[in-house]
Structure formats: C-alpha cells, structure tokens
Amino acid sequence: MRMRAPLALTVAAALAIVAGATPAAAADDPDPRPQRPPIATPGPVPDKPPAAGAVSKEDLPAGFASWEAMFDEQNRLNDIADRIIAAGGAGYAGLIVDPTLHDVRLYWKGALPDAVARAVDTGRATAPVRVYQADYTDEELRAEAARWIASGLVSDAYPEADGSGVTVEVAGPASAGAPQLPGGARTTYSMKYGEGPVVPLEGESATASTFYRQQDTSPYWGGAQFRRPGGWVCTTGFAVTDNEGYPGMLTAGHCGTPGEQITTSSGPQNPIGQVWWDWDYQDIALIWIYSDVQGRVYTGPWNSSYGRSINSAKTNYVGNYVCVNGATSGEHCAVKVYYVSPSDVTVKAERTKNGACAVAHGDSGGPVISQSTGAAFGYGIISAGQSSVDTCEAGPFGANDGYHKVHFKGLKFALNHFGATLRTYPYY
User: 37, 45, 221, 234: least CB-packed within 10 angstroms?
Assistant: First the structure.
C-alpha cells in the first residue's frame, strides 16, 4: 500500500502517527455551506514592516552570488518551458529546467509536433533549448509507476523526467533485494533503497505577544502558524480572494475540516477564521479569514517577523529550486524538484545536501516560493514529508526531527480548483 502523510500532529501524537493512507474518495465537501455575513470593508490596519530580510546563502549553487540571482535565471528559463508546455502534442516525455545548467532540456518520443518545434525555436532566441529523444512518454511511465504503487511493495514510484524509465523507492536496504512487480515490469526502472513512507506534520502550539511566524495578526500573511481544535497546528499558505469575494488563505487539506474554527497559537480568544472548503484527496483547503489578508509570506527562520511580497503564481519543472517555508522549520531554499505530476498537481522535491532538513512537523500548508529581486513567486502548498532526519533547527517545539524530502501541491492547481484569486502586494 502506498503511504503518504500530511505534515501535522500534536507533539504527543508525533511518535505514534507516522503515515496515513491515500484517501479513497475524490469528492469535494458538498454544498450548501453556511450563509456568510456580507463582505466587510476592512478598516485601516497598521502595516507590518516591509523589510524582506536577508535570504540565507546556505547550500547556494556555485556560480550565483545570491538565491535571488539564481531564481531570476530560473524564472527566465521557466518562461520558455511554459511556452513549450502550452504548445502541447503527443509524445511528451518530460522537461528539465535546472538553472545551474542555464538551459531547457526537452525529452520527446518521436517527432516534435509543429507547434512544439516553433516554441522551441522561439525559446532558442533567448536561451539554449536542447531536445532529446526519449524511450517512453510521460503517460507510459505514469501508468507503469501506478502499477508499482498498486502492488503495495514500494514506498513510492514516479517517472524520470528524461523519459528513461521509472524510479521505484522502497523502505528496506539493498541487501533485502529488489521487489518483483507482479506480471513483470513493462518499462526500465531503477531502485532507491532506504526511502520510508511519506509522512504528515503538525505540532503543538506555542504562545507569543507580538506578531511573527508563531503569532500572526491581521492582515494575515502566509507562512504563519495557526491552531486547530485540540492543539494541532499547521501553517498558512497563500492569501487569496475566494470565488465569492471573501478574504481567504490556502493551506493543506488535512489541516482542518469544513466549519472548523482556527486560531492563533494563543488559543480560542484569537480566532482567525474557519476552514471553508477542502479537497482531502488532493490535500488542499481554503480558509475563510474573518478580517483580512495580505499578499505576503513570512520568510527566514521559524521566529522571523519579516517576509516578502507575492508577485504571481508559477509552474513547477523538474530541476527547479524552491524555498520551502514552514512555521516550524522556517525557510529552506536549497530544495530541488525531482518530480512534477501532470497539470502541476503534485510536486516532489528534496534538499540538495544529504541529510539536511526540508520540512518538519507543523509545516503542513505552508508556502513554497522562489525569491527573486524584491518579490517572491508562489509555487505550491506543503503537503507531506519523507525520509526522516534529525537535522532541523530546534524551532517552537524544541525538536530537531523532520524530513529530507517534501511533497507539495501546485499553487496554480489549487487556485484553479477553488476559483480563488491570488492576493499580491507591491514590492520594491
């Protein structure tokens, strides 16, 4: 059975809950929902400091002076990849957009359709676009990966972006031998050993007196801790306006159920809003915020009081780097994407440094971004962790345990599903 788990649990339960099964149903929570009061016109509120704070150069790839410079290069290459994807056509195997290589690599089985060839030629006017023949299409490899997952013998399986085969992850050591797929493998595959199940992350709430990641105030930012009934905590994702015009915040689907009120870490006397809509199968949720939100996210360590303005939502590509922002473990920018599902629904990434922390308990729902000069771009919403480590900074719960890999949901996918509009904010 494939195991996955959201990033959320109380400290008392953290040792007992390590994984949960993929939900069996894909239905949204039914309408009608409770009637909400008329949309209020928010009064003046004191603004929070605009300072962005320095981005750590921890594990910064060679050849770049800063993470901002690297993400500027990534954004340039991603724009080319966006045009190639938009062209469509049968035979697509994958794209790798690694800013450290300064090029776009397209893998295709068979001849390029005319529209794709034109997109490639247009892209070559601004950056190298290399086209390679692939052994399999992305569709063929996703079907084979699904067979491995359905076998119950593996922790995970996913297509390689170069169309060469499927990567299969198992929890046991290599000495235990590779599992044998019933009916035999239909494509090439490679094994990765010692890869445990995908795990959920929540944590016990802390208290504070002034605004920062652990105790946000209105207008609320993404990347801050919020508390559920029973003491479970998660992280806010991105500020939005929902499809009915109300202020909202995206987060992970396992971080609440519709109608459940959420608060700051100080408890029920400081309500933020309530979970309004969720899709548990895809692990995304929309919170109705009672007061107001702002298109900014906290960045930096777990106890920071600064952040960045959000510019827009971006598409994920294999080879991209992202910054993962959770209220428990803080910000980690040396996180590299190794898998993107069709339509940018599910993305998998890992720290580039072996054994380093990407996420910890309590980070579920947090924003995944890139930091460009003056602003940030949204990429996704933290869903789960995998491959346990004990190298996380001791944040609000005083624990160092966390995960080397992170699974997140594409931001564009979540916005489209809820019919929500991303809140942005001026940047300098």
Answer: 37
* Dihedral (CA of 84, 85, 87, 93) sign: positive
CB 361 within 8 A of CB 396: no
Token pair, residue 323, equals 């910054």
The full DSSP string for 374-408 is TEEEEEEEEEEEEEEES-S---TT----EEEEEEE
Give residue for tokens 């396992």: 254
Report residue 415 as tokens: 């916005």
> Is 0.85 topped by the overall pTM?
yes
Omega of the bond leading into 219 within 30 degrees of 0 (cis): yes
Instruction: Give the residue carrying structure tokens 């809003």.
Output: 273
Query: Residue 153 and residue 2: Cα distance in Å, rounded?
Result: 8
User: Which residues lie below 8 Å from residue 281, measured CB to CB, with a gap of 6+?
Assistant: 22, 23, 25, 26, 27, 253
Q: Residue 92 is encoded by which pair of tokens?
A: 């697509």
The answer to whether residues 330 and 374 touch, using CB atoms and an 8 Å cutoff, is no
> Which is it for strands 247-251 and 284-289: parallel, antiparallel or unpaired?
antiparallel
d(CA 361, CA 385): 9
Contact call for residues 280 and 254 (beta carbons, < 8 A): yes
Burial 242-274 (b: 16+ CB within 10 A, else e): beeebbbbbbbbbbbebebbbbbbeeeeeebbb
In angstroms, rounded to a whole number, what is the distance separating the alpha carbons of residues 297 and 259?
25
Distances (CA, A) of 325 to 60, 115, 371, 425: 17, 37, 11, 18
Cβ atoms within 10 A of the Cβ of 115, count?
14
Beta bridge pairs of residue 331:
325
Distance, in Å, from the CA atom of 29 to the CA atom of 155, rounded to the nearest integer, reads 29
Q: How does pLDDT run along the chain (428 residues), one tens digit per residue?
A: 333 344 554 323 332 222 223 333 444 554 556 678 887 665 555 566 555 566 667 789 999 999 999 999 999 999 999 999 999 999 999 999 999 999 999 999 999 999 999 999 999 999 999 999 999 999 999 999 999 999 999 999 999 999 999 999 999 899 888 999 999 999 999 999 988 887 756 555 444 434 689 999 999 999 999 999 888 899 999 999 999 999 999 999 999 999 999 998 777 778 999 999 999 999 999 999 999 999 999 999 999 999 999 999 999 999 999 999 999 999 999 999 999 999 999 999 999 999 999 999 999 999 999 987 778 999 999 999 999 999 998 888 888 899 999 999 999 999 999 999 999 998 75
